[in-house]
Amino acid sequence: MIDRILIEIDRGLKLLSTPTIQNRDRPDKDILESASLSSSEKKIHSKYMRVNHSGEICAQGLYRGQLFFNKNKNIKNKLTEAALEEIDHLAWCDSRINELNGSKSKLNPILYISSFSIGATASIIDDKYNLGFLSETESQVALHLESHIKKLNPLDKKTLKIIQSMKEEEEGHKKSAVEMGGVELPKIIKKMMSVASKIMTSITYKI
Ligand SMILES: [Fe+2]
Ligand SMILES: [Fe+2]
Which of 2, 81, 93, 204 is most buried by a 10 A CB count? Predict the structure, then answer.
């Protein structure tokens, strides 16, 4: 157990302190940068990408936490597969923030630790609630990404393409969590998750 805790601490520290390496090319790689975006528009877009990057930090924490106590091999394989896709999301957001001259959130270490704890707790309770929690998280993330798509200046086709691809994959993660047996969570829990995510997104937009 001590070994596993040390491995997770090492993994978390690496994730938070080194640039993330992508396994797949960025979906916007063939799209040219728009020359018409103003510096203030770039700044706003970099903040949206900072929020999305922090969301992906939370996703990593959540997945690692859920894997920590999980004993179901089928769930383990699916979670590991989704976590790999989320690593790409993290890397895509990271590099796009740099291109837009933005910065990542200072809250990422706290967000990672809290998400890991929530994921680990959910996985102790029960598989079907663990997966239900995952499905609801992915669903809320997809809705949130959709709201960014509506807010972005459509001239920034690169950022739009990244967010669009991420949204499609989050919807896929939700679908597979439901297929593995995830149940619908009580309304009050969903509401609490939505409030927590709104607080997280509005703070990371600023810092
Ligand atoms: Fe993601
Ligand atoms: Fe996801």
Answer: 93
pLDDT means per 10 residues, the chain with 207 residues, are: 86 87 95 93 97 94 90 87 91 96 96 92 86 92 95 96 97 93 92 91 94
Q: Ligand 2 centre and the CA of 86: distance in Å?
A: 6
Query: What is the number of structural domains in the chain?
Result: 1
In the reported structure, the alpha carbon of residue 72 is separated from the centroid of ligand 1 by a whole-number distance in angstroms of 23
The token duo for 142 is 């997809």
Separation CA 174–CA 142 (nearest Å):
9
pTM for the whole thing?
Answer: 0.93
Distance from Cα 163 to the centre of ligand 2, integer Å: 12
Residue 3 in any domain: the answer is no
* Residue range(s) defining the domain that contains residue 126: 38-206
CA of 100 to the centre of ligand 2 (A): 24
Ligand nearest to the CA of 86: 1
Residue 167 covered by a domain: yes
